[in-house]
């Protein structure tokens, strides 16, 4: 296994993997009220996010099987104080349109999005927007390898890192990588654990 940075050519494959992983996530499902095909809409959401941010405002690390070249996992990091360029946001509008399950879902999406936005630290930080491992690659240490790869670079830059863990198991994993509890959110009855990794001196 090796880790490499995604380019815009890799966006479709990364979006596919993240949509597959997060379509079963309880916190993610709270954004899609009603009986909808979550993975279908989430696929467009993932591609819109990636196309809006890459490469100026984010980095995406990909774990690749050295023999088969299969995509094993993806980590999507937003750079400190980075914002997507306006042109990129406009170009992604058709994808955002397809990501929306219905107009009636907008109040729910806005309400939950505000909760996440309000919990973010004020100080500059790298934000782990998403990390996902394909079902076929779980148990092989892919997620840990992706985290170590980027956190080592973040430490070299003396930066902080932030994320949202959607389960206690995930929060425990992130805790082993130096993340500390920040704020616990209530997402329609599901706890979501925001976590902060303070700046560290790089030795």
UniProtKB/TrEMBL annotation:
CDD domains: NAT_SF (cd04301). One of its GO terms (molecular function) is acyltransferase activity, transferring groups other than amino-acyl groups. Pfam families: Acetyltransf_7. It comes from the Bacteria. Keywords: Transferase. InterPro entries: Acyl_CoA_acyltransferase, GNAT_dom, Trichothecene_AcTrans. This is Acetyltransferase (GNAT) family protein. It comes from Corynebacterium camporealensis.
């Amino acid at each position: 296994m090796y880790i490499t940075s995604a380019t815009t050519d890799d966006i479709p494959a990364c979006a596919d993997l993240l949509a597959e992983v997060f379509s079963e996530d309880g916190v993610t499902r709270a954004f899609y009220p009603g009986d909808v095909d979550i993975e279908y809409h989430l696929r467009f959401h993932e591609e819109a996010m990636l196309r809006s941010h890459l490469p100026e405002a984010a980095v995406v690390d990909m774990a690749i099987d050295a023999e088969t070249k299969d995509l094993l996992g993806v980590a999507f990091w937003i750079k400190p104080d980075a914002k997507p360029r306006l042109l990129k946001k406009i170009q992604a509008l058709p994808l955002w349109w397809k990501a929306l399950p219905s107009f009636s879902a907008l109040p729910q999406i806005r309400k939950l999005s505000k909760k996440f936005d309000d919990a973010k630290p004020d100080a500059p930080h790298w934000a782990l927007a998403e990390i996902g491992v394909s079902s076929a690659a779980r148990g092989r240490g892919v997620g840990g390898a992706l985290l170590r790869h980027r956190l080592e670079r973040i430490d070299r830059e003396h930066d902080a890192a932030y994320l949202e863990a959607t389960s206690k198991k995930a929060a425990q994993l992130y805790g082993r990588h130096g993340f500390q509890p920040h704020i616990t959110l209530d997402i329609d009855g599901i706890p979501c654990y925001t976590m902060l990794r303070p700046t560290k001196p790089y030795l």
